[in-house]
Amino acid sequence: MKSNLEKFDLDEIKKLDGIKNSELFEFLEFYVELLNPSKIFVVSDKKEDFDLVRKRALEEGEEGRLKKEMHTYHFDNYYDQARDKENTKILLPKKEELPFLNVMQRDEGLKEIHNLLRNQMAGRTMYIGFFSLGPLESKFSELAVQITDSPYVMHSELILYRNAYKKFKNTPDAKFLKFVHSQGELDERKTSKNLKNRRIYFDLEGLTGFAVNTQYAGNTVGLKKPGFRITISKALKEGWLSEHMFLMGVNGPKGRVTYFTGAFPSMCGKTSTCTLPGERLVGDDLVFIKPVDGVARAINIEAGVFGIIDGINKKDDPIIWEVLHSDSEIIFSNVLVSEGKPYWNGMGEEIPERGINHSGEWWKGKKDAEGKEIPPSHKNARFTVTLRSFPNLDYQALESSEGVEVGGIIFGGRDSDTCPPICESLNWKNGVMKGASIESETTAAALGKEGIRTFNAMSIM
Question: Which active-site residues does the annotation give?
Fold first, then answer.
């Protein structure tokens, strides 16, 4: 065992015994030395480990209890409510280029991010989690390891992804994606403080995603958007697709089921579409598509939903509404909390005039530093819940190691005045062209001005 790991609690080190992966220990050794945590906590596949992560998230103030058992809430910094495109960069080797994207030379980027991460976990616990993007026994899937000092981030991943601790033990020297996160210095509300030094970098060559001085899950949950960006590059090199798509089964006559994927930019309706009553939910956000004997087959790489809650109401989204009021484990982020209950914009119920939200103490008419009225919840407020909570889940399709045959691909976005609401491509080649030429209005899912029409090829920008 490496010396940097030997200094920690023996019970935690024992959890790593039996994992025969030299690359894993080199990775852990390097970042333990760089981040300098006081403790490490290895999240195995035991229930008591999951329970401890949940407990720590509450004890450390990153989450709060709601009245309903297993329901908690989380707040991000007022200015850390969405993906930060300006400070998100793809690290490339010398002489490599990528059009339309924010890129940086790899050596320079690694030097900067390592300097920002140095000693960030001093006095804190480093959480180490093992996950699978996709069903554990599927050839489609990718293994991953997450390092974070945020129990909220680890809690989110335990809901959203399949635990792969045992898979790492049973697969010597398995290749895996790597994710490193530190929330940085926290303010009195336990939110990231140094947003001017917020960075989200993707090292394509090293298959590693970095995030520092941020808590918003779209930046920090490594297997979410960071993993998506890295696997796009990996898929391109290996001849498959990593896509920003929902996956659902549509019921037809005589028991026929056709599986569709749908690529819409964030906050454009993927979750609401794939949870339509009467159809079959498989996934709402990220898929891998691979060719098998001349057929495109897809898996949902996630096991949960990190969905936008803004506008969710009983009439328009009955299934999501049912899930949000169930006894399932749910994290509500950046909603309004009043008397132990969560409230959000457009929920179709009377909203209290006072409570707490991402701005702190909130009251109707409260304004921010720019003089803008603060709504009860942020437009990008979210809920995190397991897919098993959905009554229309197609569980067999979700866990199929072979994936499902893709019967069609839907591309879409926010375009109120140019393209027809619905049109069918002439053929697959024409469909690729249509997907590559998507324009969509910007939304609250990313920092910056909303409603600006931009190119969003394949809905992955």
Answer: 268
